[in-house]
């Protein structure tokens, strides 16, 4: 699923989390980092085709699950560096990866020109809605 | 990580979600189903040892990631049966699996006699807190 080298994506996400203002809530800091990662991607037809192909091949899919698990671990570590303790750090990181995964899958299947960061923001709002017991996201 | 046969766990979770009152919010329905699955497990020393071993072996870990992905897919399908649309169904299911994963890892490393369902409930409250931007869970 991921089109960046796994290591450089982890570094990008970790450094963006580290650079967030201290007052930024952990999940917002991670979402902003993932949006930044999404904005760095070259958005073109080739990229979407490559992403779609990886979703269709079970072997690739398994590798992507492991990559996402590594990204979650790196994200949790970046949060701990900011003083977020466990289990909040792990939960926040894993929840953010879920947001990213859902956003990415919607993005590659979308025919509009909306950018990946917008899907990430929408998915984050949807996650907030479902954890708060609401049926749909709060208005922006 | 999972000690049930993957299929029977999926069936148990799906049927418990289906049996939840219509007014139950989706994430609560899934959490209750996972708590029920946790309560069904035989809680003994052998079980914890087996779970810990699987966490330490990378190859087993990869298989467990794939099992959890299957469980997430089955959970999302059970939510759609209840009329929850996407992306809410997928996000809710994936978030619940994160809650379960974190709870399970805390449970196998815990030396007290607290049962798995209690860890699942605690992790759910922590997820609600982090998505709401709070630093710690709301009081019960």
Features:
homodimer, 140 residues, Tetracycline Repressor, domain 2, 73% helix
Shape of chain A: globular
Main beta-sheet annotation of chain A: none
- Can you identify the CATH superfamily of chain A? Tetracycline Repressor, domain 2
Q: Give the DSSP E fraction of chain A (strand runs of 2 or more residues).
A: under 5%
> Mean pLDDT score of chain A, rounded?
79
How would you spell out the order of helices and strands of chain A?
A: HHHHHH
Number of contiguous helices of chain A: 6
Overall strand count of chain A: 0
Assembly annotation: homodimer
CATH level-two architecture of chain A: Orthogonal Bundle
Question: Most extensive chain contact?
Answer: A-B, 32 and 32 residues
Structurally, the number of domains of chain A stands at: 1
Supply the helix-strand structural class of chain A: mainly alpha
